Amino acid sequence: ARMAAYSCWPGQGWDGLWRDLWDAITERGGSVRLSTPAGRVLIEDGKILGVTIPHEANVPNDYDDGEVIETECVISTLPVWDVLKVVPESVLPDWYTQQIRYLSQDRWRVAWLNLYIATEEPVTMWDPRELATWTATPHSPTPGYMYDQAAMDPDSFPEGIHLHCMGGVIPGERGRDTEYVREMFDRFEAGIYEMYPGLKNSVWKRRGLVFDPAFGVVQKPMLVGSFRPDWRAPTVDGLYFASETFKSRGIGTDRAARAALSCVEHYLGRRLSTFGDGWRY
């Protein structure tokens, strides 16, 4: 991966990243299934029995399990707002599921309006690799950011094209309000054109809503660190949660990677020297 400030992306592209992970697992005797949704985790008397794989639905309301993969350990990467769709709530203590449900509220989602605009000329003001931030645009109350991805990684785009990536934060509780989102997108874009007039001369533009999935849970006092659900299920042996919405350090992909590291090291019963002796949950 390559890094720009707190943003990172796979230099080989997402398909290349999954292929590298596939190769690393299969070379060591493992197997990988892509585009295969899990149905539910089977648990009995506090122990993992397996994971169901739904069969390909012929009608929208099919409710059967097509296959059961037997296992004694499951590491879930689902965020708090989805994990109880796969893990039965009844096998977890109330105090633990209440933590999950509390963090699952829309108001705690990190949500924003994504706007990608490509131009033939750069619009950055001080440095091609600058990461601009603001607390609001002239037309919208949306704190946000902007950077030129082509300047960060010239190999990721055709020569002569600059992809300007920007986002404007909105309250998580408004993410399902489609009228609000459309209006705020228009206001956000109008503000961007006033701040960066050169973006009006675009050759490509795309909008996207970061809400479901969101960019994690809001980072604020009493909602981070030890205040999040532990990555170990307290009443089920071999059930782990390697999601950045559970207890971990950092932000975004870094937090998710640290959560996964904690889960794997606990399962193996030892620390992985590759990642050093630093503190982790």
TrEMBL record:
GO molecular function terms attached to this record: oxidoreductase activity
InterPro entries from the UniProt entry: Amino_oxidase, FAD/NAD-bd_sf
Domain Amine oxidase stretches: 8-260
Protein name: Amine oxidase domain-containing protein
Organism: marine metagenome
